[in-house]
Specification:
One of its GO terms (molecular function) is dipeptidyl-peptidase activity. This protein has 1 helix and 17 strands. The chain is mostly beta strands. The longest helix has 6 residues.
């Protein structure tokens, strides 16, 4: 079968369809509506090897709570359980280990201006944070879910890649990183992070780049 995501022209409703390419027939697995629009995402993950209640099911991302989180569904589109929740958002899924029922994802759970890698069981439970250094992390998990590449950066340093064990997060080796000597010559100052509140109490996060007073 073929799974298709369809959005209406008003961009307020999405439908996840399971289609039969030979007959053209389809079944609606789920439908979500949100105003003033619904955001598209890349958080759909089919579970092809999982057994038990989620056999043949899938992972889905939704902003139904006001924040983008992960949900586990059966193959018929019945919600089994939410996998994540809280006043933070999931950024992307970077790996799914169906053998042990673990999903790896990036999120801003602990700080809205940082991004870290977390894991959670498909059976639910507490999250485990896999990255420690403050800043922004981009992660790639290998197909066997044994190792991961972590590219870390912050306001004071350029992106630094490393190869780590997934089981205990221990460092295997630092990976080559190209640096531009012109950046050191320019002596650029990092921005200052700020958070301001709107009249309605919504926090807005930003970075302030101050000009060089001597230029």
């Amino acid at each position: 079968s073929l799974v298709v995501l369809v959005q209406n022209r008003a961009q307020t409703t999405v439908r996840l369809l399971r289609c039969n390419p030979q007959t053209g027939q389809h079944v609606v697995l789920l439908e979500e509506t949100q105003s003033p629009w619904i955001n598209l995402h890349q958080l759909l993950r089919p579970l092809e090897k999982t057994t038990g209640e989620a056999e043949g099911g899938f992972i889905w991302g939704s902003e139904r709570s006001g924040y983008l989180h992960l949900y586990l569904y059966t193959q018929e589109g019945v919600l089994i359980r939410p996998l994540t929740s809280g006043a933070w958002v999931v950024d992307s899924i970077v790996g799914v280990d169906e053998r042990y029922g673990i999903i790896y994802f990036l999120a801003n759970k602990d700080d809205a201006m940082q991004r870290h890698c977390f894991s959670v069981s498909l059976g639910g439970g507490d999250l485990q944070r896999l990255t420690d250094q403050p800043g922004v992390h981009s992660v790639v998990v290998d197909l066997g879910s044994h190792r991961f590449i972590d590219v870390h950066s912050d306001l004071e340093s350029c992106p630094m890649p490393s190869l780590r064990n997934l089981s205990d997060r221990s460092l295997i080796c630092a990976l080559p990183c190209l640096t531009d000597v012109r950046l050191r010559i320019l002596s650029l100052r990092p921005p200052k992070l700020h958070t301001i509140l709107t009249a309605g109490g919504t926090p807005l996060h930003g970075a302030l780049y101050r000009p060089d007073p001597d230029v």
